[in-house]
Write a structure and sequence with these properties.
By secondary structure, the protein is of the alpha+beta class. The chain has seven helices and 14 strands. The chain starts with 5 loop residues before the first helix and ends in a 6-residue tail after the last strand.
């Protein structure tokens, strides 16, 4: 049997006496960091999701204000202009004036018509038909004709007159009676011309007609001065130029009324399940970062935007595709704005459907 190698024996003994190397320790800090990041994201996502409950938002919302299209009620040439673009006016302020001369002439014509009607009234009142003279004369003619007929009748019976004279006397009586009836008819006609009727008792009809015409002319004259129907800001006044011909009823400027601002927010139909009138809302403006105003839901539209469009969608076709509709919701402000509210500004509206947040 071969003898063992002494060197190998020594190395084996040393290996047996040497302790094993220590095991590497785990980096608990790195592990904690790796676990905390997704956990934080999960918690943050949950809190964000919870914060969105009980509210609906849309950025399809705009500021609207009541706008009045101002037009002249009479036509003519613009003689004077008293306002300019973007100028603020108060209710009753004079905006512009139409040339009043044609309407002043109409008033003068109406005055002449009144004078003519009054003269006709005086002439009718002094008519001989109303005096009774014609009737009196007719009564006298009847009396004379009847006496003549009585004499002719007596002579006819005695044979001292001709039949022709007797018949002529009868004819004179008939003519006199007809003249009396004609005189009575003329008197009644003259009285009728002076009658006022039940509609305007005590007023001569022709005078009443002329007076009404004068009032119409005066109204047209007053309407040559166009005044602001409400307080607001003048806009779209490009046609408001001296010398410009104005057509009655055609707008020449727009007046944006003060204190009428509201928000028209177009919410998706899927957001309306819990929305009610009176719920609080929050309005933010793209033009004014940091400005947040409080409001409330004033009304919910009666139809979607497509329903009231000029060309409503025709869904009864084979190419129909379901599209989420939007419903206009009016939001009123609960507080005054520190910045000017301009019609058409873009906003973001959040409605708190739980009614608790403000």
């Amino acid at each position: 049997m071969a003898e063992a190698d002494p060197n190998l024996t020594i190395e084996t003994e040393e290996a047996a006496l040497t302790p094993p190397p220590p095991r590497p320790q785990r980096n608990w800090g790195r592990l904690l960091l790796m676990l905390s990041l997704p956990l934080a994201l999960l918690i943050g996502g949950g809190l964000y999701w919870r914060s969105l409950q009980g509210q609906v938002s849309t950025d399809n919302a705009y500021v609207h204000m009541d706008k009045v299209s101002v037009s002249a009620l009479v036509g003519g040439e613009i003689a004077e202009v008293f306002v300019k673009e973007n100028q603020h006016v108060k209710a009753g302020d004079l905006l512009f004036r139409i040339d009043p001369e044609p309407y002043q002439l109409q008033v003068a014509q109406a005055d002449a018509a009144i004078a003519n009607a009054q003269a006709s009234q005086i002439a009718a009142a002094n008519s001989s038909a109303l005096s009774g003279a014609d009737i009196s004369a007719a009564d006298q003619n009847i009396a004379f004709a009847r006496s003549t007929l009585a004499r002719q009748e007596a002579l006819w019976k005695k044979g001292f007159t001709t039949k022709a004279d007797y018949e002529a006397a009868q004819h004179q009586v008939t003519v006199a009676e007809e003249q009396r009836r004609l005189a009575i008819a003329k008197r009644d006609e003259a009285a009728a011309k002076l009658a006022s009727g039940n509609q305007m008792p005590g007023v001569y009809p022709q005078v009443a007609t002329a007076v009404a015409q004068r009032r119409v002319a005066q109204l047209s004259l007053r309407r040559t001065e166009v005044r602001a129907p409400a307080s607001g800001q003048v806009s779209q006044a490009t046609r408001l130029q001296t010398g410009q011909q104005v057509v009655s009823g055609v707008p020449v400027l727009t007046l944006v009324s003060d204190g009428t601002a509201y928000i028209e927010a177009n919410f998706k139909e899927t957001d309306l399940a819990d929305m009610r009138v009176g719920q609080p809302a929050e309005i933010r403006f793209d033009a004014y970062p940091g400005l947040v105003l409080k409001g409330h839901v004033a009304s919910i539209g009666a139809g979607t935007g497509s329903e009231f469009s000029v060309l409503p969608a025709q869904n009864a076709t084979g190419n129909w595709v379901k599209v989420t509709q939007r419903v206009p919701v009016r939001i009123l402000f609960d507080e005054a704005s520190s910045r000017p509210l301009i019609s058409g500004l873009s906003t973001k509206v959040t409605v708190f459907t739980d009614g608790r947040k403000r």
